[in-house]
Amino acid sequence: MAQGNQVRVAAVQIAPDLERPGGTLERVLNAIAEAAGKGARLVVFPETFVPWYPYFSFVHPPVLTGGEHVRLYENAVVVPGPVTEAVGMTARRHGVVVVLGVNERDHGSLYNTQLVFDATGDLLLKRRKITPTFHERMIWGQGDGAGLKVVGTAVGRIGALACWEHYNPLARYALMAQHEEIHIAQFPGSLVGPIFAEQIEVTIRHHALESGCFVVNATGWLSEEQIAKISPEESLRKALRGGCMTAIVSPEGRHIVPPLTEGEGILVADLDMGLIVKRKRMMDSVGHYARPELLSLVLDNRPAEAMRTAGSFPATSLDRNRNDGTDDSESQAGTHADGTADQRIAVLRSAAG
Known about the structure:
This protein has helices at 23-37, 56-59, 66-75, 82-94, 169-176, 194-211, 224-230, 234-237, 274-282, 317-320, 328-352; strands at 6-13, 42-44, 97-106, 109-117, 123-128, 151-153, 156-162, 182-187, 214-219, 247-249, 265-272. It is α/β, with parallel strands linked by helices.
């Protein structure tokens, strides 16, 4: 509930539906409505929550995961498509900004994708995780620099990263340099064990301090029944417990409300946006505390494309002179000869001097 300089936000920690196609999407839409009913104007969900995070790939060898991998393809999200339409419509109905993690299918590839919907229902950002981690590289392709972008929303300037992208300081700095006010972090949850939750907490609190922004983080949750279905071996099930740290952190690196580390629930907190200036007055990593003449970042934000047509390249002198009676090979040979001659002349002049 926004009052003056306050924004109410919600971080959702619930279980996906691992069995029923469309089941997780229903849970997402219901959670948006519930959070909006609590006054939230921003609702954040976990990493690749729709249809589900590929937990199977963490505990089973690749040779045994073909069936589940194909099932993930069959239920993955096409952007734009029915899932984005449903989420956008629900965001517009309740007047909330929504950040949702999905498994995106783009023809023959899957991607770990973060979607940012404005309160109007418009999809403002679709970004793909730039480097999948460990077992995830068998599941998803790589994203590109086009997604390292901060977008203006009804609740402020939002940037987003998924999971271990937060261990890439340059990726974080790219968003910091675009003056994000609310950073969205998403992790799978129910993975690795308690140490993962501890690492998540350190990571998001540090980013809040360094960026001088709020961090809203959502992790998923698996029930014991779901864990048992993923793996029949107890030794492997241990790797599917813990690792939950749904949290909302201030620019001073403090939890605004106690984090949610087990079970399902919706964490709600009011963000005092004035704390951003309070923090940055003392330390602005991309402003008065930066030394760009010594250290700076170069970001290639061009979308990676498998193919570009000739029409997408600028016209060259070769293209403009195709009517002079000289074919391409002759022109290229002449250019090469001229270049070689120039080099010889330069050497001779140097020797003469």
